[in-house]
Amino acid sequence: MSAVLEGRAEGPTLRQRLAARGIDGATLLVLPCVALILGLFIYPFLYGLMLSFEPKDGSLFGNYARFFGDPFLYGTIFKTLRLAFPVTLLNLLIAIPIAFRVRLMRRQRLLTTLLVLPITLGTVLVAEGMLFYFGPQGWFNRALMAAGLLSTPISVLNGYWGVFISLVLTGFPFTFLLTLSYVTGIDPSLENAAATLGAGPAARFREVFLPLLIPGLAITFCLSFVQAYSVLPSAVLVGDPAGATRVISIAAYQAAFEEYDYSMASAIAMIMGAVQLLVVVAVLGCRSLFYRGPAAGAKG
Amino acid sequence: MTVGATTFKQLHLQGVRREFDAFTALKGLDLTIERGEFIALLGPSGCGKTTALNCIAGLLPVSGGRIMLDDRRVDVLRPEERGFGMVFQNYALFPHMTVRKNIGFGLRMRGVPKPELEKRVDAALAAVRLESQAEKLPGQLSGGQQQRVAIARAIVVEPPLVLMDEPLSNLDAKLRLEMRQEIRRIHQSLGSTTIYVTHDQEEALSLADRIVVLRDGAIRQVGTPAELYALPAHLDVADFMGFRNRVNGELVGMEGEDALLNIEGTVIRGRMRAASASKAAVAAIRPDDLEPTGTDSGIPVRVEAVEYRGRGFHGVGVTASGTELHFASPYPLQRGAAVRLGADAGRVLVFGDAR
Amino acid sequence: MQKSIMSRLWVFAVWAVIGLFLINLMGLIASVVTSSFGTRWLGTWLPAGFTTRWYFAAWDEFQLGDVLWVTFQAVGAVVLLSGLLGVPAAYALARREFPAKRAVMLLLLLPLLVPPITYGIPLATVLYKAGLGGTLTGVILANLVPTVPFVVLVMIPFIEQIDPRTEAAARVFGANIFQMFVHVLVPMLMPGVLAALLLVLVRTIGMFELTFLVSGPGSQTLVVALYYAVFASGVRAVQSIDAMAVIYMVTTLVWLIVALRFVNPTQIVGRGKRPAA
Ligand SMILES: Nc1ncnc2c1ncn2[C@@H]1O[C@H](COP(=O)(O)OP(=O)(O)OP(=O)(O)O)[C@@H](O)[C@H]1O
Ligand SMILES: [Mg+2]
Fold first, then answer.
1. Is the dihedral of CA A50, A55, A56, A60 positive or negative?
2. Which CATH architecture has domain A70-287?
3. Which terminal residue of chain C, N or C, has fewer Cβ atoms less than 10 Å from its own Cβ?
4. Whose CA is closest to atom 9 on ligand 1?
5. ipTM tops 0.85
6. Residue partners of C108: CB distance under 8 A and separation at least 6
7. Residue B23 CB–ligand 1 contact under 6 Å
8. Which CATH superfamily is domain B243-352 in?
9. Does the Cβ of B46 fall within 6 Å of ligand 1?
10. Would the pTM count as exceeding 0.90?
11. CA B217/CA B126 separation, integer angstroms
12. Confidence of residue C263 (pLDDT cuts 50, 70, 90)
């Protein structure tokens, strides 16, 4: 109060000027949160970046040279992308039609809960369950053989497809949840309007839903991609951690906790982050070509 | 794409019903609409106007009954196959398309070639006076401008049947009058059939060829504006048509067409509109028709308030039993004065209790 | 309404995918549960007999009592701190326009857009340097990095949909920012806060990577202990690992179901407006 009373006729007080720019007591509430991220995310990241330029051999780019010189190391990037990209895309492509179906249902809750269930399981439990379920004596192979679809058990474990399935199982719920919330956020009267103007189901999807969904789907893709990209537990447990599913996080983990070369581990982490950010920037860049705004039918 | 008629002679609603779980929103509508007619669907909020419109448009499946265009059944068609135009209560403009794209949407869906499409969109933009806003997104328009885009989007495809759900509810008074004329003009120039939902009786009276009054999901009365205005068939309709005074009385006899009604000891004459099983009845009178008689006949009231209304005075009186009566007076009256009020027999409507 | 063959086929295909997903998921879960209650299970549809002894075995072998207590402490602290830090920040971001707002939003998005392993490794290095590596405090701090931004981003739309005039009214009637928060905002935000925090809870129980990188022998949460058990399987009976997995599953499942009672899952991101239309 006093600051206001002291305000002279010449002009507004400092507090008023700050408030006019949107800075007042309430704005300061972001500070603790920002401090936390700066301290626990940005600082370690920068620290890791510095550390990565101080390799054991003393040269500035020693770690990076080693990484990109060794196919066993740089190959992990492609192995990771070869898993993360198809998995994310598949999850998104399944999630969209299911979300459109669930949107029309009256009692969505039970189905949604079931579909979201694997979120609680986590990667470790899914991997553990897969060892049983997809194993040579597991129910999956038994059922297919009993139905006469298989003569000998197929093995999906300990290789690319084991990790692929585990990533679909654990990643789908998250992708689905995000997609569903974007799909239900679209005002249903827009679809009605398009229908009365002569647009069939396909045209309605193409002309109305898709353009409105693209921004949300781009974000969903990025967030799901992050999940699929750091596949450590399933790559180790149901994959082939020395071969086909030697993903980049395994390389980073081994450098840090098996070779105790934190400098190299940081370098790999930086490369990992850079690749990931590249993908995100590319996807979000595409998004900005589209309409971004409320998905409701303007104000009403 | 369009299987529904590009033109038709009559639209029939035959016992159209719609239920939401246990709640019946439409209780069997029967109505025949001629081609080229302008029909106003009038009724209080929640009476089922939007539901009826959605059923006709195909946005809601009917729970029973049929909708026919001449002898073709349309209630089995999907909305995009009916080829009707619709203006939504909340506009439902596509937020990611410019005004021009929004208006051209229906034409694009019908595969109209580009040059013709542009020409027709320009004409529609001109009709709703939005030429200067063509490249904006709906989010950048005012409420009234959005409403006009919604109208243009519906009419640009020149649909045989245009459905409008309170298209003028968000406009200011002046624009509303202008748009009203515009809608009427467009209706006539297209030769289309229009079903227009509103809860504004003045709008319905001025626009429509026929008015359909809906109440609690059922049709109360269908008629020309003049019929409804002069002779509402039902107390609810009378209420909507400005019969503000409703007085309870007792039927004491008939004289030809006229009913004699005893109101607090005074007998007045009125037209019998709905039969009565008992002697109880209600008289409905417009304030403009009720005037001080200046004689010993008429209902005695004590004047509570008088307002100047330009052409005369508007008074509020209270009868001995406490019923409020609104009346018109050519001369000023003192508050507290005792006067007697009366009206022409033709202007008093008597409704029995057999609803 | 008649439907074309194509649209029928399409609906069938969608349901088939849903069914396939659910059947395999249920089979997977049921495998683990069955195994954890089974005696001997080799090459048959079902185990030879049923028993509960693996649960007692797992409890002792993996010191589940301690692990659960550590998990409880870590998760509780993370939930509490994310709420205290995240909700006020979300309020400021939802209600005020200030110069650095876009930068702050980007800063908060980054931890969600970068895989935990990526920042987990340098973060673990820093925490070990600071003497926090392997401690419960370290585990809590590391887990706050993704959860606080998560709370902020979930809460912003919740706050935006509350009419600012209610707050203005409170201010006009003499409440200061703090009082307004306690008496007006918090009660209105409660459903949103609960939802966000329950999701943080589920996420933190399941957060493997960060905890794995930062925790030491005395600060392992359930999911990390489970990973080690599976990774080093062969040492212990498979069934007791399964019993542990079931215990883990039940702990998170309970919270997820509680969470879904409070929130419609579709409202987690958007505002999920559905006009009656
Ligand atoms: N989806 C629905 N589920 C249940 N009841 C509904 C649904 N839609 C409408 N109703 C009910 O049906 C009745 C008619 O609704 P409708 O929207 O047709 O009213 P309206 O005449 O258009 O009113 P207004 O003038 O306020 O727009 C209302 O009582 C409403 O509560
Ligand atoms: Mg309506």
1. negative
2. Orthogonal Bundle (1.10)
3. N
4. B51
5. no
6. A33, A37, C89, C148, C149, C152, C153
7. yes
8. Nucleic acid-binding proteins (2.40.50.140)
9. yes
10. no
11. 38
12. low
